[in-house]
Design brief:
The chain is elongated, with a radius of gyration of 22 Å. It has one domain (17-133). The chain is α+β, with helices and mostly antiparallel strands. It is built from 4 helices and 4 strands. Helix 1 packs antiparallel against helix 3 (51-61). Helices cover 43% and strands 27% of the residues. The relative contact order is 0.20. Strands 2-1-3-4 form a 4-stranded antiparallel β-sheet. The termini are far apart.
Amino acid sequence: MELALLMPVFALMLIGTTELGLLVYDAIEVTNAAYAGAAYASQNRGTAVNTTEIALAAVSDGANVPGLTTTSTTSCTCSNGTSIACTSAASNCAYPNRILEYVQVNTSATLSSLLHCPGLPTTFVLQGQATMRVVE
């Protein structure tokens, strides 16, 4: 009798634990995809502006996550801490300062819940972000 009463509770706990595990796994995948895109972009200044290949590196790393999207941006500073535009960095960062270029990759995925319970969200938005300095 006790087993018959508690079996639905155990089944619900099992489904909830499975869903939480899948959500955590996908969150890790989304974050790792951002790092993979940033690692590709940080190779040199040419790869830092190649948004197509950055997105391909990120999506390839997060292939198990459906609907993964990526965006990337670059920013520049002088070694003295002055923020400058990357297009005019050579003229705005005087010697002895060096130009430091950074790339930031953002990843995002919207996942649907397996279990639809009242009061709980039916979709989850997972986001990842990675920033790396571009090797010169």
